[in-house]
Amino acid sequence: MKNIQYQMIALCLLFLVAGQVQGQDAVDKKQAKKEAKAAKKNKVPEKGDIYLSPLPVIGANPALGFIYGAGLAASWYMGDPKTTKISSALAGLAFTTLNQTVFTIKSTAYTENNNIILMGDWRFLNSSQPTWGLGTGPQSAKLVSNGFEFNDGISEGIDGAQMMEYKFIRFYQTALKKVNEGFYAGIGIHFDRFYDVNDQLLDVANGDITSYYAYNEAYGFDNESTTLVGLSLNGIYDTRDNQNNPYKGRYAYASFKMNPAFIGSEKSSTTLWLEYRDYFSLTPDNHKNILAFWTWGNFSTSGDLPYLLLPAIGYDQFAKSGRPYAQGRFRGQNMVYAETEFRRHVWGTDKNPDLIGMIAYFNITTASASDNDIKLFGEINKGYGLGVRINISKKARTNLGVDYGWGDYGTQGVYIRLNETF
């Protein structure tokens, strides 16, 4: 009997010790997991590190209906972060209740030691967009009939937005080699194709002439599809410390694009893109107050471009210019855009001192239209607004931005995006 009692006591002690060991193991595992998480969070960036920031895409506007989908900001290092700038890409897939699809991938990557810059802009759109004619200024200055005369006694230009449905493919890829510190030179290939174009308000039989149709008739372009294929010569000067959210440095970009008919363009043409960005810290001991500047010009230097591929607002690589106007709201043979933005960090935590920020911006746009006798800088349209920034990746400096803006002619708009506008 005593042996049985001893065995029972020993068995209980064994279970007690095992329970304590298991409990200690659970505590140790929890602590190890916590320490690993902290180590990962505080790890110094190194080659191969990737930072991903997903974001649901939700919105609505009269042209697209209800919009839903997903976006992703990816940042990574292709070399030692001490000698290699961070690379960045934005990808998005969105659908709408009007059966539209928008897919984009836009990227700027730096190889090891910043030896090569790779720039990409890939898009597929099954979408729609209104157009308002050519040039900046009030709509009354841009009526089709002002620049394109149809001497049939009935034709008349449409005043106001003219909705168009289309499918669009874009493939741009540019590679630039470092020439010396900060300066790069290289070449690019460019392919744009609009097809299945439905000019919804066009009714030639009743004399309702849209800007798109009038331009195509005047310059000899097809109304249902258009293709532009080009090669470019490019130069970049870049001393920014981070392309997602620069605190200092400057950026300059020049691109001369040749679109010869013998490689697939509908008509031969050339264009010139000039761009400059600069960043100034108003509090030199930190980055809490930054004044940023951005300007670009897009010029038709020879030949004629298809209507939908003329210089237009929002047609920059990341489609971020022109707040609060819709993409393509202003279009012309030549265009100049300028914007300034004040950025201020307003609140943070010990873990993320740059968590919350605010911005205020102001921009101007001018576009020419030779057929309507609208000169560059003859008419200027402005936009201005405020925004909030939430830092969602401290190491990559990725911000979620929500902006609201006001413009001429009662225009207003809200924008949700990843990374800074420029």
UniProtKB/TrEMBL annotation:
Q: Which residues form the Bacterial surface antigen (D15) domain?
A: 219-422
Which coarse location class describes where this protein primarily resides?
membrane
Taxonomically, the superkingdom here is Bacteria
Any idea which UniProt keywords this protein has?
Membrane, Signal
Signal sequence, start to end: 1-23
Task: State the taxonomy lineage.
Answer: Bacteria, Pseudomonadati, Bacteroidota, Cytophagia, Cytophagales
Q: What is the organism field in this record?
A: Reichenbachiella carrageenanivorans
Its subcellular locations are: Membrane
Indicate whether Signal appears among the record's keywords: yes
Concerning InterPro entries, the annotation shows: Bac_surfAg_D15 (IPR000184)
Q: Does the keyword Membrane apply?
A: yes
Protein name as catalogued: Outer membrane protein assembly factor
Task: List, alphabetically, the Pfam families matched.
Answer: Omp85 (PF01103)
